[in-house]
Specification:
Purple Acid Phosphatase, chain A, domain 2, 5-stranded mixed beta sheet
Length: 279
């Protein structure tokens, strides 16, 4: 079964369907890996959710920060509201919102294919983590969401703690894991995250550097496929393939063949649904 990783869709349903036509995608033959952020900023988040959910076992998707934001607004205690630029009203008002949100809530934060040596995450992992650590800690958060999602959402927001310790517990531990897996771009070699830095590589002051600068596929124990960083664009280095090419900002939506190292990524051009920015 050929596998294709798909970059941040963010509600760009027409572009997703166009990309799949270009791939000559077949639901009974191919497997799609979505890097997260299925929703928000683009015009058709509802259609994207319905489509990907209907793919069933033929699609693997991990949660991104925009997916979690939708869930926090819909399934939190009411503290979180839609923000300027959000385009989630259609999902929240849909007749089938509950089954769609139930499905989204049960998506993992990481997918570790140990047999083929791949790790799918939305953003990244800090240098002290091996792929197996990321998968283990993702499962901790998934179990917490299953047990008490509103409590997780209530404690999810914030940039601290910024450094990993196995001794972290409770909301601080959950927050760090979520931030690393869904928001990380820059950190230090020791793993201190700076989540305020959002520009392309080279803009953050030393000792900060893109997280994938530190280590490679051997030290991490997997090739990492991720998205989240539209200002980075397509990048394949140090055993990390980043495929957020800024569709919602007028860039492209990217599909990466995962089983043929010689096959180039395929892209389809996107309309600019948002002004210049960072997704």
């Amino acid at each position: 079964m050929p596998r294709y990783a798909i970059g941040d869709v963010q509600g760009c349903y027409d572009e997703l369907r166009e990309l799949l036509r270009a791939l000559r995608y077949s639901a009974d033959r191919d497997e799609l890996w979505f890097v997260g952020d299925l929703v928000n900023r683009g015009p058709q988040s509802l259609e994207v959710l319905r489509f990907v959910r209907a793919l069933g076992a033929g699609a693997i998707t991990v949660l991104g920060n925009h997916d979690l934001h939708l869930l926090a607004v819909a399934r939190g205690h009411g503290e979180r509201k839609l923000k300027r630029g959000d385009t989630l009203e259609g999902v929240l008002a849909a007749r089938d919102r509950d089954p769609l949100l139930d499905w989204l809530l049960t998506r993992p934060l990481a997918h570790h294919d140990t047999a083929r040596g791949d790790l799918l995450v939305h953003a990244g992992l800090v240098p002290p983590w091996h792929a197996a650590d990321a998968a283990r800690l993702a499962r901790e958060v998934e179990q917490a969401l299953a047990a008490d999602a509103p409590a997780v959402f209530a404690g999810m927001y914030g940039n601290e703690p910024d450094t990993w310790s196995e001794a972290l517990a409770g909301a601080a531990r959950t927050r760090f894991v979520i931030n690393a897996l869904t928001r990380l771009r820059y950190c230090t070699a020791e793993g201190r995250m700076d989540l305020t830095q959002k520009g392309p590589p080279g803009e953050a002051p030393p000792p900060l550097a893109p997280w994938f600068t530190f280590g490679d596929a051997t030290s991490r124990g997997a090739r990492v496929i991720c998205g989240h960083w539209s200002a980075l664009g397509y990048s394949d280095r140090n055993g990390v393939v980043a495929i957020d090419t800024g569709c919602v900002w007028g860039g492209a939506l990217t599909a990466l063949p995962l089983d043929d190292p010689e096959a180039p990524p395929l892209r389809t051009a996107c309309r600019a649904y948002q002004g210049v920015g960072e997704a």
